[in-house]
Amino acid sequence: MSLKQDVDHPILKVSNLSWSTSSNKILSDISFQVPLGSFTGMLGPNGAGKSTLLRCLYRYLTPESGQVLLNGQDISSLSNYAFARKVAVVLQHTPQHFDLSVFDVVALGLIPHKSMFSNNSQADLNLIKTAIAQVGLSDKTGRDFETLSGGEKQRVMIARAIVQRPQLLLMDEPTSHLDVKYQIQIMELAKSLGITVIASFHDINLASALCDQLLILKQGRLHTSGTPENVITETTLTDVFDVCSMVSAHPQHQSPHVTYFYGYNSDNDNSSDHDTNNIEPAEHTKDDE
Amino acid sequence: MKSSWLLSLVLSVLVVSFISALTIGAADLTFNQVLLSLFGNVDEAGTVAHSIIWQLRMPRSILAFVAGCGLAMAGLILQTITRNPLADPYLFGISSGASFGVVIVMTLTGVGFGFYLSFAAFLGSLLAIGLLLLIAGFNRHQQVESMLLAGVALSFLFSSFTSLMLYWSDPQAVSAILFWTLGSFSRAQWDLLWLPCLVVVSCLGLMLAKQRQLNAVLLGDEGAVTLGVNVNRLRITMLLLSSILTASIVALCGGIGFVGLMIPHIVRFFIGQGGRLSLIITALVGGVFMLWVDIASRVILDNQELPIGIITAAVGSLFFLTLLYVRKHESVI
């Protein structure tokens, strides 16, 4: 857990980023910095723009305005492969249609490093093997990716990212459909890589426990940002997530820990929408386990 | 290593199949005659045997092999870039475009074979793929979905044109066209072989060069983009590649269905789709399969050739159904 962060030299600097569809403004005027070596979490209700913001950061979408600097260099000025050598991405869900083995999927991480006809060298093979070992799947190297559990699949995708040797790892809700154990495992694994990570979270307590800095989005705007201690407050949770809660210090690591209150249907429920009712109780169950 | 062992197995099956294709046929030749004619003394083999082998069976078998390779590769490309297990040249209207071209030339000029027919087939399939790209190719989001739907629609459109032309033609032309659409290697000639050979070899080279990128596309467009792959460009290049492959084969051999769909699945079933090796083996297995289909087409009926398309569809679908049954059975256990 001892990561050296360099606040004076941000690896990523986002300024005044906006993006919209033909009819809707999805992101407006977002600015933040990510220190080198830090673990940054992104929180916000569904539709707040977390995925869209990440997509702008990994160049799947082109920002309408604003600038994204990676090590001081505008990301739009890099070639596809040059960018992929610096930034790796783990998505929420990886579709799989034909049988690629775990090895094949991890080997995809070599793409930005390889020219057209080049074969995998011994060094590449070692890199792939080490990465698979690092995520604890050595015994499943030859298995079909499709036959793995959700948690194992995400570990394979992290191994692929390791092989990609990036400076920055972006993760779009990589744990949202996994069991609690794997939610913790995947995120701790990402943190253990020692590179800068930006990940969006569904679980506020998990984000609070692991992140150095949090970005809280609401309706396409950056509502608050800062350390978990500064950001996770009862007021913010009410403002952004529309829930009543109590914030206390976690007994193990002292980071803010959220306990939710219930009973939205019985009293004044004008302010609470469907989403809140569906999601938050589920999260509370996790905390109890 | 396991992989080199596998490759040498497939290659030896290929050699056996090829020599069988030269030996078996309407005229009885012995294995010895074939070997002598290939590697030794022409006089000992007999001049008739020599010309049967070199003028008839050799170009025919090469065409069959190349057609099998090419169609299997085209199927693999289309299945990969659309991530759809049902994709093959038929689904995209490439084959029906070719038939349309042939039918137009046959009904308008009465010509039943030759270079013009091949050229018409080539133009027809390029027309189909051109329309497909125009409609669906440049729409970045849901590119795959719109491509599949547009392909199916184009396929029906061309079929209806073809049927309309057939409706107006005389019975003789209709049977000539029917024969053409069922496929045959009897038109194989040395001087026309270079085109499909060249196309198949260069396409295989390109596929090998882009093999990593093709694998990346299997895990979704967004994932592939994050690895630096220009998915749109790759997809359009590969679509063009598979249509050129199909067009150059259909132009010479007529419509041969099911090979492009089936062979990639069979190879995938046994060795997966990960490496470059599986790409090469897919092409080789397609070629070997077609050699045996051609042999069957020559020997099943006395003094008559059975159209290729009938055999590929019958054998292919039965084999395929068996494979699916076995797989389902295995996954239950």
Structure notes:
The complex is a heterodimer of chains A (289) and B (333). Chain A has 289 residues and is α/β, with parallel strands linked by helices. Chain A has a single domain, classed as P-loop containing nucleotide triphosphate hydrolases (Rossmann fold, 3-Layer(aba) Sandwich). Chain A has ten helices and twelve strands. Chain A has helices spanning 50-57, 80-86, 102-107, 122-134, 150-164, 180-192, 204-210, 228-231, 234-241, 274-288, and strands spanning 6-20, 25-36, 39-43, 65-70, 73-74, 87-90, 168-171, 196-200, 213-218, 221-226, 245-249, 256-260. In chain A, the strands form three sheets. A six-stranded mixed sheet of chain A has the order 6-7-8-3-9-10, with helices on both faces. In chain A, strands 2-1-4-5 form a four-stranded antiparallel sheet, covered by helices on one side. With 333 residues, chain B is mainly alpha-helical. The longest helix of chain B is centred in the N-terminal third of the chain and has 36 residues, at 47-82.
**Strand content of the residues of chain B, in percent?**
under 5%
Name the CATH superfamily assignment of chain B.
Answer: ABC transporter involved in vitamin B12 uptake, BtuC
CA(first)-CA(last) distance of chain A: 24 Å
What sort of overall outline of chain B do the alpha carbons produce when their principal axes are compared? globular
Query: Total number of β-strand segments of chain B?
Result: 0
What is the largest interface, and how many residues per chain? A-B, 37 and 29 residues
Radius of gyration of chain A: 20 Å
Total domains of chain B: 1
Gyration radius of chain B, rounded:
20 Å
How do the strands of the widest beta sheet of chain A line up side by side? 6-7-8-3-9-10
The structural class of chain A is alpha/beta
- In DSSP terms (H or I, runs of 4 or more residues), the helix count of chain A works out at 10
Mean pLDDT of chain A: 88
Main pleated sheet of chain B = none
Measured distance between first and last alpha carbons of chain B: 30 Å
- Tell me the fraction of residues in β-strands of chain A, as a range: 25-35%
